[in-house]
Automatic annotation (TrEMBL):
This is Protein DETOXIFICATION. Residues 1-32 are annotated as: Disordered. It comes from the Eukaryota. Its main location: membrane. Belongs to the multi antimicrobial extrusion (MATE) (TC 2.A.66.1) family. The gene is BnaC03g64710D. It comes from Brassica napus.
Amino acid sequence: MGVSSDTVEKSDLQRPLVDPTNSDPKPPKDVGLESVLTDSSLSCRRRVYLGACIELKVLFRLALPAILVYLVNSGMSISARIFSGHLGGQELAAASLGNSCFFLVYGLMLGMGSAVETLCGQAYGAQRFDMLGTYLQRATIVLALVGLPMTVLYTFSYPILLMLGEPKSVSYKASLYIAGLLPQIFAYAVNFTAQKFLQAQSVVIPSAYISGAALLLQILLTWFAVNVMGMGLIGIACVLTVSWWVMVVAQTLYITCNERFKHTWTGLSSRSFQGLWSFFKLSVGSAVMICLEMWYSQILVLLAGLLEEPALSLDCLSICMAVSALSFMVSVGFNAAASIRTSNELGAGNPKSALFSTWTATFVSFMISVGEALVLMASRDYISYIFTSDADVAKAVSDLCPYLAVTVILNGIQPVLSGVAVGCGWQTFVAYVNVGCYYVVGIPIGCVLGFTFNLQAKGIWTGMIGGTLMQTLILLYVTYRTDWDKEVEKAKKRLDMWDDKKDAVQN
């Protein structure tokens, strides 16, 4: 099994990279990225050109299926809400409330699963293939153990919702909906770790196919459960859970029964029970990093309900958040690609390739986000009519579109740099950055501008921009100042420690 298309072979360094008689040379398919970037016989411009030809092909091959996976996963939750809305207003409110509550464990599991990206990606780059299966099992055990107290917590969702002041009838229906989702917690534990295990090996297209098939199955089964069997809200929740478990079973079978992974999956091992505490600590840093980002926008939406015209502000911000989330999915795909490429190259001992991959992914995502922002500004007077026919809401959205465009551009950079952080194992550091930028700077600024200076929704959104901008600048500076040779050494030490079964993880 090869590491990647960029793996450096000794023969690459001995053969000429360019035919001197060719006026428009193209990089040979068997030339590694590191060998191109370190070839002093080429000019800087030519090295960048040849490196870009190699890297862009790999980048888009990883990013596009990842974008589809995240869009489909979001689509499953959205489709459940659509079916609930056809049952009635209270059912829609209950499903929305239940999904919002379940967003906590979704973010927690997704964040903890991202630790697998760091370890599996670096192990794969270092060709320590047997360690990937151990990391997968260890991560699944840790996430399943974390899922136990979360299951107990959600079992008492009804009294908790009542304590939070939610209406009794909606809380009761939401608690029934949540009860149908409880087995989904453990589906997250397996699905996210298996997904990261595959991504670390640059295997992303099968996950896209599996997710797409699960979405179609969910829509068909939900229609049958609601319209034929009359199961109502609990049927919608149970079908959503079944769909997640279908993805889990499909990915598990794909990994365990495929000869492609005979070196990275060697079966169940007792080694997976060693070092659980160390893996938990690394996972917590990842979870905090992801959750703080996810909760940030949700808190700002809650603040909008306290403004002078809460209905208009909530409608306006909800539409803008939906548009922002859609564009964010593109950046999340490049986040996954950047994480894979960075961790693989660090594990392979290729510092220049890791550096080049980082800035290539950031630049491409940034250019795409600029294009999205221009389209948004050109359609600012019409985009809200996709969601509503209210003229006042349309005008409010149009006024907020310049702020939204800035957010879209920042979201083209920040998630990619977060992916680089995961690839390098900087999760704990980024978690501290998120706390400071979002909750010490962004939310207070939003409150002051929105309430004290009476800028309403624009003030709250300006606070969000301020926090995201500060975080982006810090990550840009840290990435720019990174000593990639030292990161290669850190990756090697991390893998050595885990390979020796020591209960320590270096970040």
